[in-house]
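Bumping with the actual sequence this time:
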Amino acid sequence: MEALRVQQPSWLYQSALAAVLWVSLWALSMLMALAPYESVWFPAAGITFVAMVLSGYRAIPGIAVAIVLTSFWRDTLFGMNAPAELFFKATAYTAVLHISVYWLYAKLFRTCVNRFVLLQKNSSALNLVILFIIIALASSFTNAWLSIEALVQTGMIEAPQQYQFFWSWGFGNAAGLLVMAPICLGIVGIAYPRVRKYLGSMSFQNHAADKGPVLAKGGITLLTLVVVLTVSFFNHSVGAATLIFITLVPLLWIVLTESPSVAAASLAGLTFLTALFIDGFGFLLHELIFQSALIIMAVSTWLIIAIRTDTETESVPK
C-alpha cells in the first residue's frame, strides 16, 4: 500500500496534465466545430470526468485554467468580439457549471463503484459499464442544460437558439465522454492498478495479434464510412444520413474478434474520422443523427467488451 501511495503523482502534476489534455482535445474538437459553442463531439468532457474521478478537487485548478484559456481562443477563432464584462461573466459561469456538474457525477460514479467493490469480490464489468453509460449521458445533458441557461442569461446566445443548442451540445458532450473516458481509465489503469476497479476486470493492455487481419478490418471499416458519407453528400435526405449506422457492422466485427485495446483504438479512430468528415462535408442538417451514431458506436463497443470480459472471467477455473 505504501508503495502505491509513493507512486501517485503530485496534485500539481495531475492538475497540469488534466489542463494540457483538456486544451489539446478541445483544439481537436474545434476542427469539427459547427459554431462557437457547438461541436460534433467534445472529447474534453471525457478528460474532465476522468480527472474528477481519479483526482477529485486536485484537478479543478487545471480544468479551470484550461476553460479560461480556450474561452479566449474560441473568442479569437470565431471573431466573437464579446464585451470584456460579458465575456468574463460567461466564462466564469460556464467554468463553474462544467466543473461542478462533472465533479458531482464523478463523485456519484466513484461512490457507486466503491459500493460494488464492497458487495462483490469481483465486480462485473457489465454492471460498471452500464453505470458509466447512465452517468455519462446524465452528466452530459445536465451540463448542456445549465451551461446554455447561463449563456442565455449573460446574453452570449439568444433564447430562440436555446433548444437547438441543448441537443447538439448534449449529444456532443455525451459522444466525447463515452468514447474518451473508458480509454483514459484503461490507459491509466495499466500504470496504476487501483484505477482498474472503475472498469471491472477490463484491460486495455496490448495483446499479441496478427496485424494483417486487423489492418484489413480497419480498411473495410474506413471504406464503409467513406461510401456512406459519399452517399449522404449527394443525397441530403434523412434516409441517406441514417446510413451512417451501417458503419457499426465492421466496427462490431472488430470489437467481437479483436482484443479490447484494438477495439478501443478502432472506436477512437472511427469516431474522430466520422466527426471530421461530417464537418468537412457540411452535414449540418442531420447533425443529431450523426451524433447519435457516435454515441451508439461507443455504447455498443463498451457493452460488448464488458460482456466478453465477464465471460472470460467466469470461464477461468477458481
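The C-alpha cells above came from a reply further down the thread. Residues 29 and 125 are 29 Å apart (CA to CA).
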